[in-house]
Specification:
The chain has 367 residues and is of the alpha/beta class. The protein is built from 13 helices and twelve strands. The structure holds nicotinamide-adenine-dinucleotide and 2'deoxy-thymidine-5'-diphospho-alpha-D-glucose. 2'deoxy-thymidine-5'-diphospho-alpha-D-glucose (DAU) binds next to helix 7 and strand 8.
Length: 367
């Protein structure tokens, strides 16, 4: 469900992590939907942040970009005050499980301490606000990984599933979720949390499964599948996640959490084979010669991720029942669009394969 601009008063938003994968898709979505809203992007431009992704919007004066850390209290205070912000959409995080295994400290710093700093800044700003405090919202973007791992026959995660995070990444996200919850119960702050499953789509950093496989096929490199490839993830097209967050900002009940998912559980190996088939087909269509075909011949089983969660599945019935949101893109259609995007946007992804990225790659996959 989306909202016609006439249904609502204009908002003044800070979008943290707006130069990352989901954040940049959300910035694009919001600017399209609500051209008269004030949009300020706050992003530290870590390895995962890419200002070039927003270049057209910046050139068109659709947003103000501020390079900075969510943990910089003075900067956040000033931004909230100067821009008279009423809404925070909080995407900024360290987001990759494999990196959290290699170096967890940054995850605690940004995901826990950074979110705490943002909450404190918004609390003071909200408490000091004159006039219409009812419209203020703090939307915290979280993950289904906080619920832990499911067995094959377990029911999907609901909003009341106990937290059982297994990686430093998911533990740090769980910590931030608890802080967000506490700010509602203690201060009555108008916070909302979404716990979403795996996203995919344009502008996805190369380290994650789907872009990594697309790019490696295009480069003729091995496709590293962890363990037996039978781990299951639920996949949601990123633009559907954006409409879910839009819906929760407008219609969500402060203090509530909403699970968001695609109803698309797929085993990793099946997903990789699907991507190979799509890449073989679409490369022909776009006149691209793949270095090796069929692409499936590149699939290579590699050592499993330590503590690898077996299965995630989301029960998204609450957001459908209470707010009327459901996904609109099937996994077949979304993957087709995504593969086509990576085929056509080498200029976006190639510069990201930097020496620093190659170092990271060797640490995870060997040389
Ligand atoms: P991403 O890694 O692509 O982007 C993160 C962005 O945050 C980058 O632009 C980075 O520069 C910025 N950032 C990192 N640390 C920062 C800091 N201290 N201050 C300011 N900016 C900082 O991440 P993503 O995949 O777009 O995920 C966005 C959010 O959604 C995260 O909170 C993640 O936990 C959550 N989430 C992701 C998925 C998924 O499938 N990718 C699914 C569910 C939830
Ligand atoms: O569930 C939501 C989460 O989805 C988000 O909170 C995270 O930010 C996001 O990174 C994602 O986490 P995953 O660990 O599920 O995503 P990733 O793309 O890293 O891996 C997806 C699956 O594919 C997982 O079972 C591990 C496997 N995998 C991944 C890579 C990178 C491989 O088999 N080979 C690989 O090279």
């Amino acid at each position: 469900m989306t909202f016609a601009p006439s249904d609502r008063a204009a908002r003044r938003l800070v979008i943290t992590g707006g130069a990352g994968f989901i954040g940049s898709n959300f910035v694009r979505h919001w600017c399209d939907r609500y051209p008269t809203d004030r949009v300020v992007v706050l992003d530290a431009l870590t390895y995962a942040g890419n200002r070039a992704t927003l270049a057209d919007l910046e050139a068109g004066d659709r947003l103000r970009f501020v390079q900075g850390d969510i943990g910089d209290r003075a900067l956040v205070d000033q931004l909230l005050r100067d821009e008279q912000i009423d809404t925070i959409a909080h995407f900024a995080a360290e987001s990759h499980v494999d990196r959290s295994i290699l170096g967890p400290a940054a995850f605690v710093q940004t995901n826990v301490v950074g979110t705490f700093t943002l909450l404190e800044a918004f609390r003071h700003h909200w408490q000091a606000a004159e006039g219409d405090r009812d419209r203020y919202r703090f939307l915290h973007v979280s993950t289904d990984e906080v619920y832990g791992s499911l067995r094959e026959t377990d029911p999907a995660f609901t909003e009341t599933t106990p937290y059982a995070p297994n990686s430093p990444y998911s533990a740090s996200k769980a910590g931030s979720d608890h802080l967000v919850r506490a700010y509602f119960h203690t201060y009555g702050m108008p916070v909302l949390t979404t716990n979403c499953s795996n996203n995919y789509g344009p502008y996805h950093f190369p380290e994650k499964l789907i872009p990594l496989m697309c790019i490696n096929i295009l480069l003729g490199k091995p496709l590293p599948v962890y363990g037996d490839g039978q781990n299951v993830r639920d996949w949601l097209y990123v633009r559907d996640h954006c409409t879910a967050i839009e819906t929760v900002i407008h219609r969500g009940q402060p203090g509530e959490t909403y699970n968001v998912g695609g109803n698309n559980e797929v085993r990793n190996l099946d997903l990789v084979k699907l991507l190979c088939g799509l890449m073989d087909e679409l490369a022909l269509q776009y006149g691209v010669t793949l270095p090796q075909s069929p692409s499936e011949s590149l699939i290579t089983f590699v050592a499993d991720r330590p503590g690898h969660d077996r299965r995630y599945a989301i029960d998204a019935s609450k957001i459908k029942r209470e707010l009327g949101w459901e996904p609109s893109v099937t996994v077949e259609e979304g993957l087709r669009q995504t593969v086509a995007w990576y085929l056509q946007n080498e200029a976006w992804w190639k510069p990201l394969l930097s020496p620093a990225y190659q170092d990271y790659y060797s640490q995870v996959y060997g040389t």
